[in-house]
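Let's practice the habit of predicting before peeking. Look at the sequence and jot down your guess about where helices and strands might fall. Then scroll down.
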Amino acid sequence: MESVFMELKNLIDFIQAAYTEVTDEWLRNADIKSNLKKSQVADMDTDGTIYRSIFEYVQLLNDKSADITLQLSDVCSYMVTARVKAQNSIEYNIQTYKTSRHEFGKVPINKCLNDLFGVRVFLITPLTFEDINKFIESTYSGRYKCIDSSKLDYKAVHIYFRKNNQSFPWELQIWNMCDADSNFASHKKYKQAYTTWEKESKEGGIING
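Done guessing? Here is the structure:
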């Protein structure tokens, strides 16, 4: 089991280095910076600069993601994938956070958009949340937020990378390979939901309900 944690450490350290490089470039060059902890999703209706900031950052991620993704196989021997969140998924997420389930948008933007860049690793040797959380705490002393994101058919641990309140977080999803089929099925249901939302939006359906 020790080798599993070494693989995880190598991956986390690589993601941290890539995150720091991209975030520093973003903070150096961004025309628009917002406090993503104080700014709420509800503020986005009246402050268009936040929207522009999001999609300018996504463009930077698109420019950088290929190089980052190509290096993942050299860092970790397990299967690792990465993606930049698509625009329709971002917009669906924002609209979802404006509903009663999320206090009608009275939620910090960095909680709503905490995975604009995401990495996923598939562990052959299964680990529990307790295993992973203990490793993260002992190795990184509270540096990373580690969450048991398991819900219904979805089983995973998520780790978040964040520099400061002006920085968009990145997400690492840790999946056990034995849970992959049910997790993909769960993601498919989510994708169907935002595809339906996108279709209704274009046809004049209600999107804020």
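How did you do? DSSP finds six helices and five strands in the chain.
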